[in-house]
Amino acid sequence: MEFYVISLLNSLVFGMLLFMLSSGLTLIFGMMGVLNFAHASFYMLGAYFGYQISTFIGFWPALVIAPLLVGVLGAGVERYGLRTVHKHGHVAELLFTFGLAFMIEELVLLIWGRVALNYQVPASMDFTIFTLFESDFPFYRLFMLGISVIMFVALYLLLTKTRTGIIIQAALTHPEGVGMLGHNVPRVFMLVFGGGSALAGMAGVIGGNYLVTSPSMAILLGPIVFVVIVVGGMGSLTGALIASLLISALQTFAVGYDYSLVDLLALFNIELGPDPWFSDLWRIKIENTGPLLPYVLMVVMLIFRPKGIMGERES
Questions:
Q1: Does 148 fall in a domain?
Q2: Can you tell me the distance from the alpha carbon of 150 to that of 166, in angstroms, rounded to the nearest whole number?
């Protein structure tokens, strides 16, 4: 019982962090149709900016300033980069953002070096809020959960209940009509891209001290973010939330199962021969497959439901 409760709490925390990171990419793709390969790099910049700012003036100002800086940088990338290559199609956009990710990584290495930073949880939140089964649950994890829930509610209300959200969604499907109504469509796209980048930056500020702040953090979480938006459904905010929690649970619970297919078959009194086909594959422990499970889920989803969990079907 202890294992399931603690694993559930840990998967909830990590899942909501994944949602914080993937929500910005979902917003950018859903509103603009741009699959940003550099999105995880903005997450990394948020962590590094948060560390640097918190060193001088504290964590709380960093929580506000760092995402704004990343958002301004993202808006600049859209205005002076993506907007230029947009006329050449999606392949050009993918190549541009792919190259941008490498540039950001090299800049981080040049400025902060290769060693992981000592980015600590702020002292005001570094305490245990409750103890369950002799395991301490830090307050900072509850803080992360709270920020994630607020972010989801705010984005959902913005996109579905406000005039701004209607203009943003209309600008994607009917840009000419929105422009004729007097709205600056390129500026709308720039603000959307900047806002999505700022969300990634906020995830970096909050998650950088929870996980690790190092030049490899974008590479470690970047692929998982794309799995989240594919499984959840391209452009679906609710789907991104569900997929984040599902993928986090798969990885978290898999770590605790020290079983293989051989052990599973033994429960049904089935024994393999002395030298079965792919003998090493049968003996792989579930705990060793944790990093692979999200990609297996993505492949299964693409086969049986290509639109994802909450993706809309084409008419």
A1: yes
A2: 20
